[in-house]
Design a protein that fits this description.
two-stranded antiparallel sheet
């Protein structure tokens, strides 16, 4: 009798916990957030989306290549998923055209979460909590469509809030928000550094694909967008990332091969020292910048001014 009473008490607590959590989640963004941080969407339930897209690194990773289930090693560096609401392409090669489509990729990727989306749907339908949450938010049980929609809506919510020093300076909220070095770096960014030619727009990306020299079929063999389009003009091209919070998202480039912002500026200052014979190099990159030590320091300092004072989660 005592054992039955204890089991009944535990069951009551569990039910109360489920009802409390169902009550606490009020929108599809909050449902997507729960899914994003829940390892239930990985094969062995060991990792979640947030295992690689970590909030403290602006939803990027601090590893060159992230680890998936069974410590599988990814093939490309994990990009930030902040400021994705207005992007027309996703993944470095642009193979996904919207966030819903993008959300499926890591779940099914064998070196990431390695779970067929139909199995993910089945698994969520076996969860009393998720069945109740989906019925509350979508008035139906978990499906492929509403799972990816919830994940996409959460990612769309991860927008910068205008708290970065550069935003406050540009909006005349704080004329002292930028240092003199950062102001000089901004001028270099717009002019001599040629950064603005690719990193323009509110999120400092033109949403284009560029070959910056990290493809030579020797050390750098990732063909980038070509593997998706099969167009020879796309050899070695990768999606231009946004630069908001870039100081938090090291290491850099599609392969994570450049460790710091200082090394990034060294690369752009003298590309051919890093890659002597790049293939299909973008015309904008063909002449090295030859930046001085002070100019590189100023540019790095400017890039730090793009860091949000407040990050989601």
């Amino acid at each position: 009798m005592k054992r039955f009473t204890i089991l009944l008490f535990v069951f009551t607590l569990a039910c109360g916990g489920i009802e409390s959590e169902v009550k606490s989640i009020k929108s599809e963004i909050e449902l997507g957030e729960k899914l994003f941080f829940d390892p239930i969407l990985s094969e062995d339930q060991s990792i979640s989306c947030a295992s690689c897209h970590r909030p403290e690194f602006a939803f990027a990773d601090n590893r060159e290549l992230s680890l998936g289930v069974n410590d599988s090693i990814g093939t490309r560096n994990t990009p930030s998923v902040m400021n994705m609401a207005s992007r027309p392409h996703f993944f470095y090669d642009g193979r996904a055209g919207n966030l819903e489509e993008q959300s499926i990729g890591p779940i099914e990727n064998p070196v990431e979460m390695n779970l067929e989306i139909l199995e993910a749907v089945h698994r969520l339908n076996q969860s009393e909590l998720y069945v109740k949450l989906f019925e509350k938010i979508y008035l139906e049980e978990p499906t492929n469509a509403n799972i990816t929609r919830a994940l996409a809506e959460f990612q769309r919510s991860l927008e910068s809030d205008g708290s970065a020093p550069h935003d406050r300076w540009m909006n005349d909220e704080d004329p002292m928000a930028l240092t003199e070095s950062q102001k000089r770096g901004r001028e270099l960014f717009l002019d001599k550094g040629k950064c603005f030619d690719c990193h323009f727009g509110p999120d400092f990306t033109g949403d284009e694909f560029r070959n910056i020299g990290l493809y030579d079929e020797l050390e750098y063999r990732d063909k980038g967008r070509f593997d998706f389009t099969r167009d020879s003009s796309d050899l070695g091209k990768f999606k231009v990332p946004g630069l908001r919070n870039v100081a938090l998202t090291a290491p850099y480039m599609h392969d994570g091969s450049i460790k710091t912002l200082e090394e990034v500026l060294e690369f752009y200052s003298d590309l051919y020292r890093f890659v002597p014979n790049p293939i299909n190099l973008d015309t904008i990159m063909q002449e090295s910048l030859k930046l001085s030590v002070t100019e590189k320091e100023d540019l790095v300092n400017f890039l730090h001014s793009l860091t949000d004072d407040k990050l989601p989660n």
